[in-house]
Design a protein that fits this description.
heterodimer; A: 502 residues; mainly alpha; 2 strands; 75% helix; globular; B: 153 residues; 0% strand
Chain lengths: 502, 153
């Protein structure tokens, strides 16, 4: 069986002692930062990204990055349950019933249910990634410049559809991201563009600097707006083991959540968030006592947490096979690959099978480590929650500065951090979501390159995008998504969903 | 008749996008535009910049017609101390060297919060510098000079 051979290659790569070590460090660091309240998974990864570049081997560095991702997500669920402060919108759903369970003295059980649900979902969806990635890669290899261009348009449009708030603002953020992405030397003519005459920006704006600024620094500033004491009412967590009744109640929601999450996670633009909401709605609707939801229902923790984690996993599929990021975290992953000298896309599976399958196998290992490590370590994470915020952010700022500088030893990258921190904060204040901007930033150069190549191949005839069937189909999807989000009924429903979240 | 008002949040937002679009459009005009067949370096950015200006205009129209959420509290003190921290690090890491520079960077960032007491800030920055020395400089061996030329006598 080819699948088994591939998985065997993956596991032998991922379970080398060094890679296990990097995965472990990643999971620990990710949880450590992710558990800090108000700092979501994206910000965590952006801040820890530079550390992974210190590892020479791209496989190890990406495995560590994946570990950071799972850890950060789990850390986010922990804060959601213990102090009702979700770091990321995808764990906002967990906070609804998880926090109520904690209030009823069942914090330990809630954390264990979240961990078990995530692990089950992670196992199933890792397998799905292994099954579906190769055929998709084969299709993607047939893609020409026109198809790639249209595919990226689909990705960008979906990120707009799933962003919070105004659609027009999200569109503007995508366009601004694309423009910022093409700062630097033009690949065809070598002309420097938008560098303001600064030679250090000739290679383009540093991706890490932009990510740290827009997500990390802007998030710190937002947290500094109103400093108030956090009340950690749970000083110690006991009774980790869920009761037999809990197990009976969580089994079906975990399976349903995994299915919903795996399907929605593939959608570009942040399917994991949607998955958690969809799962919560489904559980509430089919429950015999919907009145329990919002008051500490086991199903309300188990379902969304599984969906969330399954979605997080399957969002690797478009990233690994097509090189198209499904969400800002995947955009960070692609940025990391490019810095490591790997061109993301269908060729990765063929040219670097060890890397490709190693990452897939490490997903499962990372999930296993999470469950083994974090349940005993919960006491430590609870202690971390009591560290006052004003002590944390000088530490974060210092590490971000060192991290960004260490990528290229370019001091102009540090000025970019400050600039993008300001821009990111300003845009958040103006109710503009930063996620579409980052996606645009990563795709900007690729989009332009493929557009120009497609136009040259078609001798300047723009109908090439609609006469080639795959490209036309993709553009039709993008167009349909745009039309749907602008429909008055959908627009209203969408606003309701996001209001409920806040 | 309703008096003419502009919503603050969306008004500023529109102005920002139109300004940024205008900046990129003007810069693109200095580059070779080319044709749709053979696009020059300025073609794609010019198109994007025009789209950005148009989207800004749409937001402006919305700002005149509807009211949205207020901007809310702004972290002025945070901006005053957090944003200069990486800039300061960039300006001094070569001259002062890695360790003094990171100490002062952490110290600057510490004062972004009104709750931080000076002594705590000093202790925190010193501890952080020690940690940075052990982990980044010693263990990871980052090639930064620990003390720079400005401190050599």
């Amino acid at each position: 069986m080819e699948l088994l051979d591939n998985l065997a290659l993956g596991f032998s790569t991922a379970s080398s002692l060094a890679n296990l070590g990097f995965c472990l460090i990643g999971v620990l660091l990710g949880t450590l930062i992710g558990v800090l309240p108000g700092i979501g998974a994206t910000a965590t990864i952006a801040m820890l990204l530079p550390i992974t570049f210190q590892i020479g081997d791209p496989v190890s560095s990406l495995i560590m990055l994946a570990g950071i991702y799972y850890g950060a997500q789990y850390g986010g669920s922990t804060t959601a349950i213990l102090i009702n402060m979700p770091g990321e919108s995808s764990s906002a759903v967990t906070a609804i019933d998880g926090y109520q369970m904690a209030k009823n003295g069942r914090a330990g059980a809630a954390l264990a249910i979240a961990a078990i649900g995530s692990f089950f979902a992670g196992t199933v969806s890792t397998f799905l990634v292994a099954v579906f990635a190769p055929p998709l890669t084969a299709i993607a290899l047939e893609f020409g410049a026109a198809e790639y261009f249209s595919l990226m348009i689909v990705g960008l449009v979906s990120s707009v559809a799933l962003a919070h708030g105004s659609i027009v603002k999200a569109l503007a953020m995508v366009v601004l991201g694309l423009l910022l992405g093409i700062v630097g030397t033009d690949i065809y003519t070598g002309t420097p563009r938008f560098t303001l005459g600064i030679r250090e920006y000739a290679d383009g704006l540093n991706f890490v600097a932009v990510a740290v600024g827009v997500f990390g620094v802007a998030e710190i500033l937002r947290n500094l707006e109103n400093e108030h004491e956090r009340s950690v009412m749970i000083r110690s967590v006991s009774g980790l083991m869920p009761t037999r009744d809990d197990f009976r109640r969580m089994a079906a929601p975990i399976v349903r959540g995994t299915i919903i999450g795996s399907a929605l996670g593939i959608l570009p633009g942040g399917g994991a968030i949607l998955a958690a909401f969809a799962s919560y709605t489904v559980e509430k609707r089919i429950s015999k006592n919907p009145g329990e939801f919002g008051k500490g229902a086991v199903e309300g923790v188990a379902g969304p947490e599984s969906a969330n984690n399954a979605g997080a996993q399957t969002s690797f599929i478009p990233m690994l096979t097509l090189g198209i990021p499904a969400n800002p975290v995947m955009a960070l992953m692609i940025g990391a690959m490019i810095i490591q000298g790997i061109v993301p896309g269908p060729n990765v599976a063929i040219e670097q099978p060890a890397l490709f399958w190693g990452i897939i196998a490490s997903m499962w290992i990372g999930n296993l480590m999470l469950i083994i490590l974090n349940l005993p370590l919960i006491g430590l994470w609870v202690k971390l929650l009591t560290i006052p915020y004003y002590v944390l952010f000088p530490i974060i700022m210092a590490f971000c500065s060192i991290g960004v500088y260490s990528v290229n030893t370019n001091i102009y990258d540090l000025y970019a951090v400050a600039f993008f921190g300001l821009l990111g904060y300003l845009l958040t204040k103006l109710r503009c979501e930063p996620a579409p901007l980052l996606l645009g930033f990563v795709l900007g150069p690729l989009l332009e390159e493929n557009l120009r190549r497609a136009m040259i191949l078609a001798r300047g005839d723009p109908t090439t995008f609609v006469t080639r069937p795959i490209s036309a189909g993709l553009l039709f999807i993008a167009f349909a998504v745009l039309v749907i989000v602008f429909l008055p009924a959908v627009k209203k429903k969408r606003e309701e969903v996001f209001v409920e979240e806040n | 008749m309703k008096p003419f008002t502009i919503d603050t949040t969306n008004g500023i937002c529109a102005a920002l996008f139109i300004f940024l679009g205008g900046f990129f459009a003007l810069q693109s005009l200095d580059l070779e535009i080319g044709t749709a067949f053979r696009m020059g370096p300025g073609y794609f950015p010019l198109v994007l910049a025009i789209v950005l200006i148009l989207l800004g205009a749409v937001i402006l129209v919305e700002a005149v017609r509807f009211e949205s959420e207020p901007i809310g509290h702004v972290a002025w003190r945070g901006m005053l101390f957090i944003l200069p921290a990486p800039i300061f690090f960039g300006l001094t890491v070569r001259g002062l060297g890695f360790l003094p520079s990171i100490f002062l960077t952490a110290l600057i960032a510490s004062f972004a919060s009104g709750r931080m007491r000076p002594l705590t800030a000093l202790v925190l920055s010193a501890g952080l510098t020690l940690f940075a020395f052990l982990v980044f400089s010693y263990a990871l061996g980052l090639p930064f000079r620990r003390f720079g030329p400005w401190l050599q006598f």
